[in-house]
């Protein structure tokens, strides 16, 4: 992969924090930073960075969100109301998954576990309203 100046800028942005980014968010963050970059370039750049395993992708409702590739393994909770993405890691769940795979002689390459629902903030806001 060619690490163009634009791809370097995308990678630097993602590596700066623990956030999960979608392409639109990256475009506006880079534009705010004074960098002219279009959505198509960002899409292509993200695809290349994912293929090179320099970022990790997370599929939500058919759209990809990207995060740093060097984070420790974790799974996600996604709020369908506000789009918030939280992270968790449960040793018990990890172990169970391994046991299931071993029992089936299945060689796991990786896994992604996502819980969908309503985050705490959205739940308490809805309660306050009713
Ligand atoms: Zn929420
Ligand atoms: Zn994450």
Strand-helix topology:
Elements: H1 5-15, H2 23-32, H3 39-51, E1 55-60, E2 63-68, E3 75-79, E4 85-88, H4 91-103, E5 114-117, H5 120-129
This protein binds zinc ion (2 copies).
Q: List the ions, cofactors and other small molecules found in this model.
A: zinc ion
Determine the fraction of residues in helical runs and give it as a percent range.
Answer: 40-55%
State the major sheet: 3 strands, mixed
Please state how the strands of the largest beta sheet are arranged side by side.
4-3-5
Number of strands: 5
Beta percentage is 15-25%
Indicate the structural class.
alpha+beta
SSE topology string? HHHEEEEHEH
Q: From the alpha-carbon coordinates, what is the Rg to the nearest angstrom?
A: 17 Å
Instruction: Determine the mean pLDDT.
Output: 94
Individual helix count:
5
Task: Give the low-confidence spans.
Answer: none
Q: Give the termini distance in whole angstroms.
A: 53 Å
- Overall spatial form: flat
């Amino acid at each position: 992969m060619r690490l163009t100046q634009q791809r370097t800028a995308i990678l630097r942005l993602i590596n700066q924090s623990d956030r999960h980014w979608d392409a639109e968010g990256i475009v506006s963050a880079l534009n705010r930073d004074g960098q002219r970059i279009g959505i198509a370039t960002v899409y292509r750049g993200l695809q290349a960075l994912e293929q090179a395993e320099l970022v990790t992708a997370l599929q939500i409702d058919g759209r990809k969100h990207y995060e740093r590739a060097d984070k420790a393994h974790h799974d996600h909770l996604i709020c369908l109301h506000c789009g918030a993405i939280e992270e968790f890691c449960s040793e018990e769940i990890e172990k169970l998954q391994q046991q299931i795979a071993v029992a089936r002689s299945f060689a796991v390459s990786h896994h992604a576990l996502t819980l969908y629902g309503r985050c705490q903030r959205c739940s308490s806001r809805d309660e306050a309203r009713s």
